[in-house]
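so im writing up the methods section and need the Amino acid/amide ABC transporter membrane protein 2, HAAT family record in one place, dumping it here so i stop losing it
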Amino acid sequence: MVIPILRRPIVLGGLFGALYVVLKLLGLVGLINDYWQRVLDQALITTIGALGLSIIYGFAGQFSLGHAAFYGIGAYTAGVIGKVWGHGNLAYFLLALLAGVLMAGFIAFLLGIPILRLRSDYLGIATLGFGVIVRVAMENSNKLYPPLGGATGMTGIPQVANFDWIFWFAAGTLVLVCNLVTSSYGRAWLSIREDEIAADALGIDTTRYKILAFVLGCALAGLAGGLYAYRYPYLHPSSFDFLKSFDFLLIVVLGGLGSISGTVVTAIAWVFLLEGLRIVLGQAFVDWRGIIYALILIVTILLRPQGLFSGKEWRLLFPSLSQDRTLGKEGKHASFGG
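--- predicted struct ---
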């Protein structure tokens, strides 16, 4: 199967370049200080992870409540390599990121073979259970390998990932996902999401495509986790709990299932919104965080059940995504987000 080249690459590349230059200049003149630079970096890292879940749930329709587990697997895998062997070396940084991606993808493959036979809520419960297992394993990891830190967390990871690395990894992830969902892979995922039984009857290997979506999405979560480990000085199991999985799920749902533009915009807005609430509410935000999440989700479902973007895309950036996705060669179409 051939993955198409993203349309308007010059326009897209120019916009990425212009955005990068603007953000760098804002930092140089002091309009983005160190604090907000860290928040921006977190927003971009979250975008990478959310795009992974968008493949799994937004396009392939596989309900996952354990995405943060793979985010954590990538973070701890990359982090321990950097802590024990890396010492700030750029080659080890890239190797550690690759290891985080491969580890998250490999575990997703092993997990996906049995659990992707499940559907809907049952699949969500299974992934939620896996997330709990990973969280407990992280809390006791020092008993197996002391540098992992266990319940006290991991420190000593060289802080190699700066804004430059994170921005271009996010841009590359966006291009990769756009190409995937406009290819035959994306059409197969959409057909599975809309009606898995019909897709199977049409000869689509649904098991293969579901596992592929799950592995790719979790691998992107691993990449996001690796960047997180190399950007922030402290890893703790609580950073990869159910609420973090809920973060990713909210972003994909609020942005609109099957909308790349919606996922990107919502991921960035969500991180800045949470940080703003943390500043305004202080400790009360931590105490009421779960209720705030639930209220935002309820209001969105009531007022905008198909998400903020309703499966639509920015035509300027993604013209091939802004059209109805073709499910067959004979004029069958379906809009994402419906």
